[in-house]
Design brief:
Among the domains are: 128 residues, no CATH class; 148 residues, YVTN repeat-like/Quinoprotein amine dehydrogenase (Methylamine Dehydrogenase, Chain H, 7 Propeller), CATH 2.130.10.10. 4% of the residues lie in helices and 48% in strands. It has three helices and 37 strands. The radius of gyration is 20 Å and the shape is globular.
Length: 398
């Protein structure tokens, strides 16, 4: 890849850079009709469906990308990438990272939110190529965009619209201080971590205000706005452009451990934050309130369903799945992924993904994907044995 000179974070203007992508062989395309109506989240060649084409995408240690259709249980290959250490997705694109690069895959299935209803689409899948950078990447992605922070001192904001056209284009590429950090997409521009907290930058790279936030860690986009976790609470950014507003949501007095990451069902106001201990936090971005819950055992992952019962799903350190409703425990499975969590090479890739009805859990050592019904006593609705090690997993089509 040809690298352009990097602009300093406070520069007045950063020209977009086109990042080289590799050619890919698309998967077998869906039937050619009916063609999706223009203006409803579709792209040329996409097919509009009557229901979401939900899949589980998983990446094996050798870089093979698998796609499991949750309707018929059939698995297909999306291609091969370099072995990856992390996987992030907003429901369509896969961002698989390792030192020095992030591979980007278009799964070919997605849901488009039309405010009061949804449209569902399917198109040929594609390996779009790689975004390269200096150091280990951290990706923050939502339907607002994708931000990739390389700890060698680069922060890249990708153009999500260009990805939909099959191109990897950097809307911004910034020089930042080396070290762990984030670039978080906003409706216009982004938040970039700095030694002073967060710096908001416009779409053209113009530096705006500095936002105090001690030790930024964890971010999520909600229906209310964009959240970034801080040592003493969270920053919530709402609005866009000149109408951007920044609010602080402090932890209640006497709070215990802070949340280090956030997870929730998409387009919901309440998110869950794991602390790395026995407690987790529920952050209601609509009410601007925190609620701390003690699970009574060490937790590895936690995700908010944010349904009428207030379900939260947690993965305990022994590999069991625990379900809470309104902050109270209501169900617990037997250990499902104990062997995976006991293996340091696999534990980091074990994840929980939630949609409106189900929660999905991958067991790399068990070579199994689990589908659970959190509103039905954590019932294991289905299991999907895999012929590969599902090291990294996420849901697509949502």
């Amino acid at each position: 890849m040809t690298t352009r000179p990097l602009a300093l974070l406070g520069a007045a203007l950063l020209l977009p850079a086109l990042l080289a992508g590799c050619a890919a062989t698309p998967a077998t395309p869906p039937p050619p009709s009916p063609t999706a109506a223009p203006g409803h989240g579709a792209v040329a060649g996409a097919v509009e469906l009557a229901e979401p084409a939900l899949h589980l995408a998983s990446i094996s240690p050798d870089g093979a990308v698998h796609h499991l259709d949750l309707l018929d249980g059939e698995s297909t290959s999306l291609g091969d990438i370099a072995p990856a250490a992390t996987l992030d997705s907003e429901g369509r694109f896969l961002f698989a990272g390792r030192d020095g690069s992030v591979s980007i895959v278009d799964s070919g299935v997605w849901t488009w939110n039309h405010v009061d209803h949804f449209h569902y689409y399917e198109a040929p899948s594609r390996l779009l190529g790689e975004l390269t950078g200096d150091g280990t990447p951290r990706t923050v992605v939502s339907d607002l965009g994708a931000g990739v922070h390389f700890d060698g001192g680069e922060a890249v904001l990708l153009d999500l619209g260009a990805l939909k056209d099959g191109e990897i284009v950097a809307a911004l590429r910034l020089e930042v201080a080396p070290g762990d950090g984030m670039i978080v997409p906003l409706p216009v521009g982004a938040l970039v971590t700095t030694g002073e907290g967060l710096r908001r930058v416009d779409a053209d790279g113009t530096a705006r205000e500095t936002i105090p936030c001690a030790a930024p860690q964890g971010s999520i986009a909600t229906v209310e706005g964009v959240v970034v976790g801080c040592a003493d609470g969270a920053v919530l950014v709402t609005g866009a452009g000149d109408s951007t507003a920044v609010e602080r949501i402090p932890y209640p007095e006497g709070a215990g451990e802070r949340a280090v990451s956030f997870a929730a069902r998409e387009h919901r106001p309440t998110v869950a934050g794991v602390t790395g201990g026995t407690t987790f936090w529920m952050l209601d971005t609509r009410a601007r309130t925190w609620t701390e819950v003690d699970a009574g055992e060490p937790l590895e992952r936690v995700v908010a369903v944010d349904d009428t019962a207030g379900h939260v799903v947690a993965l305990a350190a022994d590999g069991a799945v625990q379900v809470f409703a309104g902050g109270a425990p209501v169900a617990r499975t037997a250990p499902l992924v104990a062997a995976s969590l006991a293996d340091p090479a696999l534990a980091a890739g074990v994840s929980l993904t939630v949609d409106a009805h189900r929660v999905y859990l991958n067991g790399p050592a068990e070579r199994m994907l689990f589908e659970l019904a959190p509103a039905d006593g954590a019932r294991i609705a289905r299991t999907f044995p895999t012929g590969h090690v599902p090291q990294l997993t996420t849901e697509t089509g949502r």
